[in-house]
Amino acid sequence: MPRPADRLQTHANHRSYPHPAYLVAGLVLLVEAGRRAWIAGTEFSAQSAWALAVAAALLVAWFYARRSAQIVQDRLIRLEMQLRLERLLGSERRTEIESLLLSELIALRFASDSELPVLVERVRRGDFARAADIKLAVKSWRADWLRA
């Protein structure tokens, strides 16, 4: 959900976390799967085994619902950044742009247009050991509140 325009985004507050209700739902599913496993282990029957399978399936669905959203988000970030970098660096550098790792593109997306070309050069030179180091190098943060 978008944040108010007057709230600045920085490296310190940029992380996106699932809604608490989603986490509570996952905890409930996990506890229920554990309870069903206990019952199936102590009082085995076809019904207890089926209940365990259903609880496990719900837990897997809960996990993959978020993971699928994150995968789509990552694909969109890659496309967004490739287009943005082509606009800023020129299409003749497309091969260079396409060689950037997804983790690097995700980190670079927070840089302003004015500092992005310099940061890309530093990434290409290998100045950063981790993607987190790229984010720390961003001086003029480009906020993104619309994340899964």
- Secondary-structure class: mainly alpha
In terms of DSSP E residues, the strand content is under 5%
Kindly, what is the distance between the CA atoms of the first and last residues, rounded to a whole number of angstroms?
9 Å
Question: What does the radius of gyration come to?
Answer: 21 Å
Q: What sequence of helices (H) and strands (E) makes up the elements?
A: HHHHHH
Helix amount? 55-70%
Total number of beta strands: 0
Tally of individual helices: 6
Mean pLDDT: 90
Shape category: elongated
Largest sheet: none
Q: Low-confidence spans: pLDDT under 50, at least 5 residues? A: none
How would you describe the overall organization of this protein?
The chain is mostly helical. The protein is built from six helices and no strands. The protein has helices at residues 20-42, 46-89, 94-99, 102-108, 116-125, 131-137. Helix 1 (20-42) packs antiparallel against helix 2 and helix 4 (102-108) runs parallel beside helix 6 (131-137). The chain is elongated and about 65 Å long. The termini are close together. The model has no long low-confidence stretch (mean pLDDT 90).
Summarize the structure.
This protein is mainly α. The chain has six helices and no strands. The chain is elongated and about 65 Å long.
